[in-house]
Design brief:
Layout: H1 13-35, H2 40-53, E1 61-62, E2 79-81, H3 96-124, H4 130-133, E3 136-141, E4 144-150, H5 167-183, E5 186-192, H6 206-223, E6 231-236, E7 255-261
Parallel strand pairs: 5-6
Antiparallel strand pairs: 1-2, 3-4, 4-7, 5-7
C-alpha cells in the first residue's frame, strides 16, 4: 500500500497569508501617516469640543506665547483666566445656545489664528527691519490676540522719557497697520512702563508717559488708514501690569500692547425674552 505524504504546511498555510496581509496593511498605514499633515488648529478645536462635552475643566488655562531671540523667557506661561462659570456646563449635551456660542468662538479662534499668521508674515516681509522685528511678540490669549512691542536691553523703541517713538519704531508700526486693518477686529492699545529708580519731573510720571506712548501708536495706525471707529480703548498702565513681575526693572516690561478684542457673540432673539 502506498504511504500518504503529510502536507508541507501542516494545515496552517492560511497563517502565512494572514501575516503577509497584516504586513501590507501596516506598511499602507505607515505610508498614509508619512504623507499626511496635521492641522494644529483643527486638532485644538477638536480637543476643546471634547473637553466641553465631558464637563467642566477645573484647571487654569494658560495662554501661548511666541518667544523670539533677544527677549527673556518667562519662568512660566502667562496666566490667562479661569473658565467663566456661565461658559461651563456639567452636562455632556449642550443646548442650542451653547452650541451656537461654541460655534461662534470657534470662528473667532480661526480668525485670530489667521490674524496672527498675517502679522507674522508682515514681520518676515520686512528685511530692512529684521532687527526691529525682534522686539515684537505675538500672543494668543483667551480674550483675543496681543501684539507686544517691547524694549530690549540697550535698544529701546522710544527715547527715554519721550512719548514719540524712534523712526524705526514708527516704520514697524506702519508695517503692522496693514494686517491689523484687514482683521476687522476692534483694537485696544495699552502703554506700559517698567519700574524705575530715576525720578520723573514734577507733575509728569509713568501714568502720563505710558498713556501718551499708547496714543502715539494710535495716531500712527490712524495715519496708515486704520479707522478711528475700531479703537476700543487707549490707556496707560504705568508699571502695574508687568510682563515679568519677578524682575520689575527689566527693559522688556516697557512695552506697547496692541490687542485685538474678542467680542461676545450676539444673543439669539428667542433668548432675549
Amino acid at each position: 500500500m502506498a504511504r500518504r505524504k503529510d502536507g508541507g504546511h501542516g494545515g496552517h498555510g492560511w497563517f502565512v497569508t494572514f501575516a503577509d496581509l497584516m504586513a501590507l496593511l501596516v506598511a499602507f498605514f505607515v505610508m498614509l501617516s508619512a504623507l499626511s499633515t496635521q492641522d494644529q488648529q483643527k486638532m485644538q478645536l477638536v480637543a476643546g469640543s471634547m473637553r466641553d462635552a465631558f464637563g467642566v475643566q477645573s484647571a487654569i488655562r494658560y495662554s501661548g506665547i511666541v518667544e523670539v531671540p533677544g527677549l527673556p523667557t518667562r519662568p512660566k506661561l502667562k496666566n490667562a483666566a479661569n473658565i467663566p462659570p456661565e461658559e461651563a456646563s456639567a452636562t455632556p449635551s449642550p443646548d442650542q445656545h451653547d452650541r451656537n456660542s461654541i460655534g461662534v468662538r470657534s470662528k473667532q479662534d480661526r480668525a485670530f489664528a489667521l490674524a496672527a499668521a498675517s502679522l507674522r508674515q508682515a514681520l518676515q516681509d520686512m528685511p530692512e527691519l529684521t532687527e526691529v522685528s525682534k522686539h515684537v511678540m505675538i500672543e494668543e490669549t483667551r480674550d483675543g490676540l496681543n501684539v507686544e512691542i517691547v524694549d530690549q536691553d540697550g535698544r529701546s523703541m522710544f527715547p527715554e522719557g519721550s512719548s514719540e517713538p524712534y523712526e524705526r519704531t514708527r516704520r514697524l508700526i506702519q508695517r503692522l497697520a496693514v494686517p491689523l486693518k484687514a482683521t476687522g477686529f476692534r483694537i485696544s492699545i495699552t502703554g506700559h512702563t517698567s519700574a524705575t529708580r530715576t525720578p520723573f519731573r514734577p507733575g509728569y510720571g509713568p501714568w502720563e508717559l505710558s498713556s501718551e506712548r499708547a496714543h502715539a501708536v494710535r495716531r500712527t495706525l490712524e495715519a496708515e488708514g486704520v479707522p478711528s471707529a475700531v479703537f476700543f480703548g487707549v490707556t496707560g498702565k504705568a508699571d502695574v501690569q508687568l510682563l515679568f513681575p519677578d524682575d520689575p526693572y527689566v527693559s522688556a516690561n516697557r512695552r506697547i500692547t496692541i490687542s485685538l478684542i474678542s467680542e461676545e457673540p450676539p444673543i439669539p432673539f428667542e433668548l432675549k425674552h
